């Protein structure tokens, strides 16, 4: 009966959570995405808590990463990443790391599949390239921690190399050498 307003938003949150409980994760993600728009429009919403929604979507994403739907888990984690505030480097680092690791694991699973076609190989390379970009973003987010940033950068280079993107490997290493000449 509620078409607009705060109570409608609370009902929409309940609907999103129920869809997730019913394991209709793709529809639930769409419902959570609609709530994000309401959070942007009204930051001090009385019934919608950005952090609670982020944590709920994170829990769903983590569960899906360990299931037969890791790609859907990654989409949930991407959405949770979009809910982090720009200054929350720790949360951003967590999501970038989990997404990159999930993409790498999906690529590895595709590599071990027995009937690997050319299309499968292309998908694997795309997953590795995307994982590499996530690791590269992670190294930038962790710029204050040189050891962690270097580990993330190394993972990016390894994934670019595994994807057959030697030009990108050279670009990343050249950028690293310029930023860290003594390394």
Q: What do you see in this structure?
A:
The protein is mainly alpha-helical and 183 residues long. The protein is 77% helix and 0% strand. The chain contains 8 helices and no strands. It is globular. The chain starts with 5 loop residues before the first helix and ends with a helix.
Task: Provide key terms for this protein.
single chain, 183 residues, mainly alpha, 0% strand, globular
Short summary:
77% of the residues lie in helices and 0% in strands.
- Radius of gyration, in Å, reads 19 Å
Provide the succession of SSEs.
Answer: HHHHHHHH
Low-confidence stretches: none
State the helical fraction: over 70%
State the helix count: 8
The total strand number stands at 0
Report the structural category.
mainly alpha
Give the termini distance in whole angstroms: 64 Å
Mean pLDDT: 87
- Give the overall silhouette: globular
Largest sheet: none
Please report which band the strand proportion falls in: under 5%, 5-15%, 15-25%, 25-35%, 35-45% or over 45%. under 5%
Oligomer: single chain
Topology (elements, then pairings):
Layout: H1 6-21, H2 25-41, H3 50-65, H4 70-82, H5 89-112, H6 118-141, H7 146-162, H8 166-179
Helix pairs in contact: 1-2, 2-3, 2-4, 3-4, 4-5, 5-6, 6-7, 7-8
């Amino acid at each position: 009966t509620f078409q607009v307003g705060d109570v409608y938003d609370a009902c929409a949150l309940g609907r999103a959570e129920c869809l997730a409980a019913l394991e209709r994760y793709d529809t639930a993600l769409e419902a959570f995405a609609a709530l994000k728009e309401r959070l942007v429009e009204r930051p001090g919403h009385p019934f919608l808590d950005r952090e609670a929604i982020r944590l709920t979507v994170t829990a769903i994403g983590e569960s899906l990463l360990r299931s037969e739907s890791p790609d859907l888990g990654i989409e949930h984690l991407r959405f949770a990443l979009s809910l982090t505030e720009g200054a929350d480097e720790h949360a951003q680092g967590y999501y970038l790391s989990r997404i990159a690791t999930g993409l790498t694991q999906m690529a590895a699973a595709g590599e071990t599949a027995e009937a690997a076609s050319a299309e499968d190989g292309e998908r694997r390379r795309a997953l590795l390239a995307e994982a590499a970009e996530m690791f590269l973003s992670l190294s930038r987010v962790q710029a204050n921690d040189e050891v962690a940033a270097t580990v993330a950068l190394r993972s990016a280079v390894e994934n670019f190399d595994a994807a057959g993107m030697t030009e990108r490997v050279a670009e990343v290493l050249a950028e690293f050498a310029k930023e860290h000449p003594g390394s």
